[in-house]
Write a structure and sequence with these properties.
The chain is mostly helical and 118 residues long. The protein has helices at 11-23, 28-40, 50-57, 61-74, 76-79, 97-104.
């Protein structure tokens, strides 16, 4: 099958990925992406298809294809990033935020003078 993006790792890149995977001391998604690239390497001992990678690592075939593309277009460091650089994630709904802020900064409710328990 024709692949638009073919991963070809240099010896240095392969060694770096193998060391990363062997140590296991990184973000889980970074380790997953390293494993995907090692298996997708056209010059390496394993030349897995996207379908086989998806089945082995329990990801979608689109994830395997996306990692190939990110490596070919942006290089190894960007391909290993757990999330895409650029637009930050939205946090909360814009309609909830003003209400939350008003609850935080309103005056405290004080008990009435002469009430029971004071």
């Amino acid at each position: 099958m024709y692949k638009k993006y073919v991963v070809r790792l240099t010896e240095k890149e392969r060694t770096q990925l193998e060391t990363l995977v062997r140590s296991g001391r990184a973000h889980a998604r970074r380790l997953l992406y390293a494993r995907i690239l090692l298996k997708a390497d056209a010059d390496g001992p394993d030349q897995w298809t996207d379908e086989r990678i998806a089945e082995a690592f329990e990801v979608s075939t689109a994830t395997a294809a996306r990692q190939r593309r990110r490596f070919c277009e942006d290089g190894l460091e960007v391909a290993l990033m757990p999330k895409k650089p650029g637009r930050p994630r939205r946090r909360g709904c814009s309609t909830v935020e003003p209400r939350r802020t008003s609850l935080l900064f309103r005056a405290p409710i004080l008990p009435k003078v002469g009430s029971v328990g004071v």
